[in-house]
Amino acid sequence: MRFQDYDCETFYDEWMAAPGKPRPEASLLVRMLESLPAGELQRRQLAAERAFLVMGITFAVYGHRDGAEKVWPFDLLPRLVIMDEWERIDRGLRQRIQTLNLFLNDIYHTQRIVRDGIIPEEVIRTAKSFRPECIGLRPPAGIWAHITGTDLVRDRDGKMYVLEDNLRCPSGVSYVLENRQVMKRTFPQVFQASRVLPVDDYPSRLLDTLQFVAPMSARNPRVAVLTPGVFNSAYFEHSFLARQMGVELVEGRDLHVDGGRVFMRTTRGLERVDVIYRRIDDDFLDPRVFRPDSMLGVPGLMKAYMEGKVTLVNAPGTGVADDKVVYAYVPKMIKYYLGEEPILPNVPTYLCWEKKDLDYILGHLDELVVKAANESGGYGMLIGPHSTKEQQGEFADKIKAAPRNYIAQPTLGLSRVPTLVDGKLEGRHVDLRPYILYGREIYVQPGGLTRVALKKGSLVVNSSQGGGSKDTWVLPAPPPQAVDGLDVRTPITMGAQ
To answer: What is the CATH number of domain 350-410?
Structure first.
């Protein structure tokens, strides 16, 4: 497996500075891969895929003709992040999540940021995820978003940007943990020699976060994970996290509100629940408050929450902070609430509801990425350079009909990582989703989920759109260069361990 012919093209490559010239942090891995016998890397890739299949690590694609469940797509070659850069990412994410929590608390109370003209009142009022029902809500410890997944991208110039924030029910962390276990078993010697920062304490940190925000009256807080059920695309993750934390996995029909408290039905009878890590959207939480036709939620749940009898994580109403129009104002929020410059910049963003921006967008649809303000998973998006005139015309009509619902951004040349494709190494575009917990303190999981666009030339990394994932290695400083006596050619047998 040779890197001499690996083509970086015009993109920033996370491994290679130039053909045949690995970056310092990638030198050990490049030497290891080049020392493998012919076909060995492909054999280990297939072994890793079998392991995912045997372990039942899956996700669902709604409406897919081949059925709901797919084995999680995974590529063996990890993304590498050096310590100096990771420390900057860590600081930037802490700054951002602190700001977003201050923003959420503000807009559901005094709306000082609106009165001071930092963000227009119309932007808040028209956000689909703004919940008037949550005005005046005071979540325990003043924390609204306890679990966040923030998407980062690197452009051609090597600069890292925040692409979007995910504060409602961010998914994917279970794949971070499972990817890591498979990598450890596939390349154990190289992994150990690289001194990669660990990620496997996430479940215990998550449980600590959940218990920290329990109602004051709960001496030994009881936690449950609330799932929509087995047909949800992230059900594997719901069950995985519940199992790892040692807590109950429940559906709405398993919960019951009585006397202002929430109980779950068990074989031992009704048992109190103090904290609910909910993996269902606001709309379906409580049919008495939100959608009356919801069969997934629990009647009376919001009243129990408002009275401080149970804690919901994340708090209802947090979705307004990951509205893509609101996203454009986060740099101003950081300056407003913290008096600081953003450590991690936003991608430059055009707002379709502002006439000057709208005129520019409509004249440059072939160059821009247009996104719906409240869509996710790669849906509701136009990638201008890869679109047809007909598609551009359709989006122009959508934008003009509802300008508040769209933003546009320059088409970034996302950085790439070597990826195994049909037995060869080719560059594929990636993003990075670190996970942030906010409880007793703010904790940023080292690395996070690297998502990779497996289709050649594609910029869409979502698994629902044909993307996959890689393990993310945060490496110490200085990065490992050589390991005496390391035999990387030793075959590794993968199985259902």
So the answer is: 3.30.1490.270
